Amino acid sequence: MTSASRQSTTAARGTVLVAAQGVALGYGSHTVLHAVDLQIRAGEFWFLLGPNGEGKTTFLRAVLGLMSAQAGTLRLDPSLASRAAIGFVPQRCDLNPTLPTTVREFVLLGLVGTGTDRADHAARLAPALDRVGLAGMQARSYWALSGGQRQRALIARALVRHPALLVLDEPTTGLDLAAEASVLEFLAALNTDDGLTVLVVTHDLHLATRYATHAALFHGGTVLAGPRHTVLCSANLTRVYGAPVDLHPGRGGVA
Q1: How far apart are alpha carbons 3 and 112 in whole angstroms?
Q2: Beta bridge partners of 23
Q3: What are 137-186's pLDDT values in tens digits?
């Protein structure tokens, strides 16, 4: 991906891409999250953390436009309003494994709903595959890829949208340690080198302390959000997880 294409697909650093103010989210009469306040700015690398069932996926669904707030306001920058500039990497691939699918076919599924002209497909496909380290694999079967390569193909499927915001749900689930490290180093490069804003849902605190610039802790229907070093401190983690948490310093150290 050239520097020119990076500049055209990312918002100016510091631009507020997602702003939640007093947001309540839930299903029917059941409220899962209440009074959520946070801002996600262009160029940041966010990790959403917390025990199961605390609302991480619910918040993700709201950002993706799959549900509306029960109260408060959730505003997205105009560049994200249609969600076409949001790239989403799900936890699992829901394709039928008996369906023959090439890497090219799989990645181009990411353009569904963008209105992209078919003539533009090749121009988007090649840089996306190159960026994730799958150059030259267009004709290979998606099902013949390793677990780490499939995860990279999922990311490429999001990158063909030229997103301003990349959202990933448990991107390292099922990967071995080497593949996990490879995927996270790649995401960090997208953030630091390409200026892409990244939002990751995970249970892995150690990954967050190593890679995050910002974090959000989900617990008891509330969200504590801000710079990593202020959020991922011993007192907060003990309160959320109910026991002392021993973490190693991340890229910038852990408070």
Answers
A1: 25
A2: 36
A3: 999 999 999 988 998 999 999 999 999 999 999 988 888 888 888 889 99
Highest mean pLDDT among 43-47, 147-151, 245-249: 43-47
Number of C-beta neighbours around residue 101 at 10 A: 15
DSSP 141: B
What's the alpha-carbon Rg for the chain, to the nearest Å?
A: 18
Q: Please, what is the Cα angle at 169 between 106 and 89, to 5 degrees?
A: 20
Does the pTM of the predicted model rise above 0.85? yes
Does the domain at residues 15-53+66-85+165-255 carry the CATH identifier 3.40.50.300?
yes
Mean pLDDT of 221-225: 96
Residue 208: count other Cβ atoms within 10 Å of its Cβ: 26
Q: Residue ranges of the domains in the chain?
A: 15-53+66-85+165-255, 95-161
